[in-house]
Design goal:
164 residues, alpha+beta, Gyrase A, domain 2, six-stranded antiparallel β-sheet, three-stranded antiparallel β-sheet
Amino acid sequence: MTIHRKTKKQYLTICAFLVLAALFTTALSAAGLSGDQPRRIRFELRLASYEKMDGWKSVPGPYAAKTDIWISPEAALTNAELARAWPQPDGDGFSVGFLLTEEGALKLARLTKSHVGEFVALMLDGRVVSAPKIMAEITGGRAFIQGKLNEEEARSIAEGITVK
C-alpha cells in the first residue's frame, strides 16, 4: 500500500510539473520570448546631417571614425513599411536586400525626391549603420543595406527587420 501511494504521488507530481512547463512555454511563445524566433531588430531611415541641426540629435556616425552625425527626430521609414528582406551576395560578402510595402515605396520616393544632395541615416536598433548621400529619387521600393556582412549576419538582419 505504501508503494502504491508513493507511485501515485510521484505520478501526480510529474503531471503537475508537465502542466506548469506547458503553461510556461506557451506564455514565453505568446510574449515572443521563445528561443526559436528571430530577434526583432528595429529598422529606421532618418534624414541626417554632418552639421549641427536645431532639434536633431547627435549620435555616433556609421564608419570607423565614428564622426558624430545629426539625425532627424522623426523616422521616415520603419519596420512597418518593410514587406520582405533577404540576404544578398555581393562582391565583398553579403548585403541585406529589402522590399518596401506600397506605402513605404511612396514614402521613400517622396523623401529622396525632396532631399537630393542630403544624407539619410539607416539605423538598426538605434545605431547608424550607414549614412549615404541621396543622389536621386529612389523609386520601385527596393533597396539594400550594404556592408561587409557574412551570410549569417545578413540572414539574421533580414529576419530581424521583418519580424512583426
